[in-house]
Amino acid sequence: MYQHGKRPTIASRHGMVAAAHPLAAAAGARVLGNGGTAFDAAVATAATLNVVEPYMSGLAGRGVATCYIAKERRIRCLDFVAPIPLNFPVDKLSRRDQLMRGALPVGAPGNLAGWCELIQSHGRKKLPELFAPAIAIARDGFRLIEFNIEEIRAAGPDLANHQALYPEWSRVYTGGQGTVSPGFILKQPDLARTLEALAQEGPGLLYGGALGQKIIDRLSELGGCLTMDDFKAVKPNWVDPATADYRGYTVNVPPPPCEGFQYLLTLRILEGFDLAGTKRNSTEHFDTVLRAIRLAAGVRIATGVPSRQKLAEILSDSFVEPLRARVRDGQPIVGPTEQWTPMEGQAAAQEESHTTSFSIADSDGNLICVTQSLGSVFGSAVVVPGTGLCLNNFLYWADVNPDSPNRVKPGGALPMCMAPSVVTKDDRPVLALGTPGSYGILQTQPQALVQYLDFGLPLQQAIESPRARLTDGREVLLEARLEMEVHEALRQRGHSVTSGPAWTMKVGGMQGVAVDPETGIFTGGCDPRRDGYCVPA
Fold first, then answer.
1. Among 269, 287, 390, 467, which has the highest number of CB atoms less than 10 A from its own CB?
2. Whether the Cβ atoms of residue 147 and residue 153 lie closer than 8 Å to each other
3. Are 421 and 445 in contact (CB under 8 A)?
C-alpha cells in the first residue's frame, strides 16, 4: 500500500548517484550522462562534496573505496589512507583528546591521490571536466541548506576557543561573522582557485609541489609534524577485499588495516540466527543484532590489524560458533566498541561522526562505494590561508594509549573504522552501501543490511528503518521510532538503552545503490538523517 510522507523510489536504467548533498549527487549524475564511468562520477561527486559539505570531507582528507570493476569482473578496493607521519610524537601522547584540533593531528592528505587513481585506472574523463562543477559552485557560491547551517553553527563556539585557527575558519565559512543564518550564500573563491590549479597542473602540485609546501609551512607555524616526505609517501593501493557470505550473498569491504572486518564478523554471527522468522523491529530482532555487534566490536579491538590468515580464522565457523552461543545465552554483554580500554574502566563515548559516503552505478556495470572523511567536524580546523583547504585530523583516530596493544607507530598503518561495501550474488554486483558515523559505521552497515536482506525491505525503506548506536560498556542509543515497549524490553535484557530522538545522525547517514541483476535497473537509497539525495543519470 502506498504510504504518504515517504521518499519516493528513485530508479534508472542508465546510472545512479546517491550522495550526501543534492548538488554533489547532481554533479556525479551529469558526468554519467556525459559518458563518464562511475569512477569519473565519483571524482566529480567527491570534489563537489568538498565545496558543499566542507565540514565532512575534502581533498585534504582520506578514505577508502570498494568497487566492482566490470571490465575485470571482480571486486577491488582502493585504500587512500596515508601512513602515520614519520615524525609523529606518539611517545609524548597518551590520550585521544590531545589530538582533536590544531596542527598535530593532521595526516598527509590522501583523497586527492585516491581520486586521481580512480580515473587514471578506470575513468574516461580528465580533472578539468570533473572538477568543473565544484569549481563553479565554490566560485559562484551556493545557498546553505538546513544541515549545512546546523553543522556550521554547531562548530563555531568550539572553534572560537582556538585563537590561532578561528579567524581563517570564520572568514572562509561564515564571512567573518562566526555563524550563519538561513539564506546565507557560501562562496569559497580560494578553494575555487586551488581546484582550478590542481585541474591544470595535476596532483603533483600537492604531493611535492607548491601547494603541499604551503600546507607544510602553515602546519610548521602551528607546531605540526608533517613533512614533504610524508606527502610523497602517499600512494593509493589497490587490494583485494575482505569477504563474508551472508544469506547467499557475498559482502565485500576493504581489508585490514581498514576495520570493516567487524561488519563481516557481525554478519557471520547473525548467519546462525533466523532473523526473518522474527518480527521486524521487535525485541528479539534488535537484541540479537545488538549482541552480535558488541561481540564483533570486542573481537576487532582485541585483534588489532589481523593478517589475512588471522582474518580467515576470525571469520571461520570454529571461531564464530562460540560467539553465536554467547548471543544465545542471554547474559548481558559488556565491552568496548571504540578503541582498547583497560578492563577496570570504560572510556567515554566519542561523539565524532563527520564523514561522508556515496555510492554510484553506471551503465557499463561498474559499481563503487566511497567513504571519506576529514576525521571530525572541520577536521583539525586548520584552514590554510589562500587555499580554501580545511585539513584533516585523522591522527585523532590513532590509538596512542601507551598500554594498548594497538598503539600506532610512526610510519605505520593507521587503522580506520570505515566499511564501504559492495554486495554480490553469484559474482554479480547487486548493492553498494556505505555510511559515515565513526565507529558506528561498523554497526550501521549490518543493521541496514538485515533490513534489506533478511526482511526484504526496498533499499530506501531499509535505510530509513530505526537504528541503534552502541558505545562502550552496555550503552545503546536507540531511535524513538522503535516502539517504546522494545526500548524497555531491551533494558530488561541487559542493554543500557537511552531513547534518542526519532531520527539522529549518530546512527549514520547512509547512501546506497541497488542493482536488479535480471533487469539491470538501478535503485537509489539515501538517508533522511542527513541531506542525502539520489540523482539518476
1. 467
2. no
3. yes
Range list of H helices, 208-357 = 210-222, 228-232, 261-270, 283-303, 308-314, 317-328
Contact 255, 240 (CB under 8 A): yes
Give whole-number Cα distances, 352 to 273, 370, 379, in Å: 32, 19, 10
At 1 the pLDDT is: 55
Element (H, E) at 118: helix 111-122
CB under 8 A, 24+ apart: contacts of 244-248: 244/268, 244/315, 245/271, 246/270, 246/271, 246/449, 246/453, 247/271, 247/453, 247/454, 248/425
CA dihedral 473, 476, 477, 483 (to 10 degrees): -160
| Burial (Cβ within 10 Å: 0-12, 13-18, ≥19) of residue 394 | buried
Angle at 437 between CA 509 and CA 207, to 5 degrees: 105
Whether 313 contacts 319, CB under 8 Å? yes
Q: What is the DSSP letter of 359?
A: E
Are 392 and 375 within 8 A, CB to CB?
A: yes
Phi and psi of 197, rounded to 5°? -65, -40
Neighbour tally for 85: CB within 10 Å = 24
- How many CA atoms are closer than 13 Å to the CA of 402, on its beta-carbon side? 6
Cross-sheet strand order for the sheet of 74-80:
237-239, 74-80, 62-69, 367-373, 355-362, 15-19, 533-536
- What is the Cα–Cα distance from 485 to 491, expressed in whole angstroms? 10
Half-sphere exposure of 70 (CA within 13 A, CB side): 13
Question: What domains, with CATH codes, occur in the chain?
Answer: 25-61+79-235+370-397 (no CATH), 239-340+419-536 (3.60.20.40)
Spatial separation of the C-alpha atoms in residues 237 and 80, rounded to whole Å:
7
Structure letter (DSSP) for residue 416:
B
pLDDT tens figures, 9-44: 899 999 999 999 999 999 999 999 999 999 999 999
Helices within 468-508 (DSSP H only): 484-492
Q: What is the structure's pLDDT at 404?
A: 85
Give the pLDDT of residue 353.
Answer: 56
Rounded distance, CA 242 to CA 270, Å? 18
Q: How many CA atoms lie within 13 A of 11 on its CB side?
A: 9
Amino acid making up residue 16: M
pLDDT of the residue at 148: 93
The whole-number pLDDT of residue 50 equals: 97
- Residue 461 C-alpha from the chain's centroid: 20
> Which residue numbers in the chain have pLDDT < 70?
1-5, 342-353
pTM, entire model: 0.94
